[in-house]
């Protein structure tokens, strides 16, 4: 299958340098302008802040672009396994550039933002995307998996609120927390059913067999590794959400009791 390799390499490199620029220069300037509390943060907090600003930018770009491709890119939907070069490949190349950029930042500032689960997540994703771009297969699946990034802005916003010392049960944190839980569940957990259902539906078909054992196994293993981490994160997020809802109910009950006494 003919793939515009030079274009994909160019997109990946451009993505890498763009996100590096955002981390080392743009985020410092932009964050100081929009959030007065940024300047009072410690050096370590600023590093993670900038990392999450870049993460949010990446998530919005590939998430929204991915949603458009998922809904309207007929070239990708026509043949999910062997679809020709399409916008999905470009989106995956953008994501690959970001992952390489973020890996370099995590390694360079390991003592500040080092996380073995993020290393596993990035490496598994990069390996899968490398196979997609190199062989020109499964672009539809790769793009579908990128829809999971739509949850990241809410996760990052939660951290921003905490860094700025917003009250734990403030309205902004509660609303963001509920949205984070709902969106995370939809794009990372609920999406597993159609994904693995599709995988089962094509198993044993001629297009699936043509993928070869390496790509077949890589498809399954990389997705399982990522989804295990997604389930772990979902459990953690759900516990936090339940805790917040329980606190709100207790506060309402307490207020109702106090109002009853006043009456």
Give a topology summary.
Blueprint: H1 5-34, H2 43-72, H3 74-78, H4 87-108, H5 110-113, H6 116-135, H7 139-146, H8 152-163, H9 171-190, H10 192-202, H11 206-211, H12 213-262
Q: Assign an overall shape.
A: globular
State the end-to-end distance. 77 Å
Largest sheet: none
pLDDT < 50 stretches = none
Rg to the nearest angstrom? 21 Å
Structural class: mainly alpha
Name the beta content range: under 5%
Q: What does the oligomeric state look like here?
A: single chain
Number of domains: 1
Q: Number of DSSP strands?
A: 0
Helix content: over 70%
Secondary-structure element order, N to C = HHHHHHHHHHHH
SS summary, helix count: 12
Mean pLDDT: 92
InterPro entries: TLC-dom (IPR006634), TLCD (IPR050846)
Membrane topology: Multi-pass membrane protein
Protein name: TLC domain containing 4
Subcellular location: Membrane
Notes on the structure:
This protein is mainly alpha-helical and 263 residues long. It has one domain. The chain is 83% helix and 0% strand. It is built from 12 helices and no strands. Helix 4 crosses helix 7. The longest helix has 50 residues. The radius of gyration is 21 Å and the shape is globular. The mean pLDDT is 92. One of its GO terms (biological process) is lipid homeostasis. InterPro entries: TLC-dom (IPR006634), TLCD (IPR050846). It is found in: Membrane. It holds the Pfam family TRAM_LAG1_CLN8.
Question: Briefly, what is this?
Answer:
By secondary structure, this protein is mainly alpha-helical. The chain contains 12 helices and no strands.
């Amino acid at each position: 299958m003919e793939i515009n390799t030079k274009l994909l390499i160019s997109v990946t490199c451009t993505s890498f340098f763009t996100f590096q620029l955002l981390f080392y220069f743009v985020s410092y300037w932009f964050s100081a302008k929009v959030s007065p509390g940024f300047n009072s943060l410690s050096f370590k907090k600023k590093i993670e802040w900038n990392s999450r600003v870049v993460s949010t930018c990446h998530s919005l770009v590939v998430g929204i672009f991915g949603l458009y491709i998922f809904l309207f890119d007929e070239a990708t939907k026509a043949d999910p396994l062997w679809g020709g070069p399409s916008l999905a490949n470009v989106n995956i190349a953008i994501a690959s550039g970001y992952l390489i950029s973020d890996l370099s930042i995590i390694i360079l500032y390991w003592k500040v933002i080092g996380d073995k689960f993020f290393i596993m997540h990035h490496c598994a994703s990069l390996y899968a995307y490398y196979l997609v771009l190199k062989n020109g297969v499964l672009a539809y699946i790769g793009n579908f998996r990128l829809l999971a990034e739509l949850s990241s802005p809410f996760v990052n916003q939660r951290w921003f609120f905490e860094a700025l010392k917003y009250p734990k049960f403030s309205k902004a944190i509660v609303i963001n927390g509920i949205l984070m839980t709902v969106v995370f569940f939809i794009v990372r957990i609920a999406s597993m059913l159609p994904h693995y259902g599709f995988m089962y539906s094509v198993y044993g078909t001629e297009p699936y067999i043509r993928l070869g054992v390496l790509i077949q196994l890589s498809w399954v293993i990389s997705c399982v590794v990522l989804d295990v981490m997604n389930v772990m994160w979902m459990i953690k997020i759900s516990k936090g959400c339940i805790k917040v809802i329980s606190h709100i109910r207790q506060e309402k009950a307490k207020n109702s009791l106090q109002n009853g006494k006043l009456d």
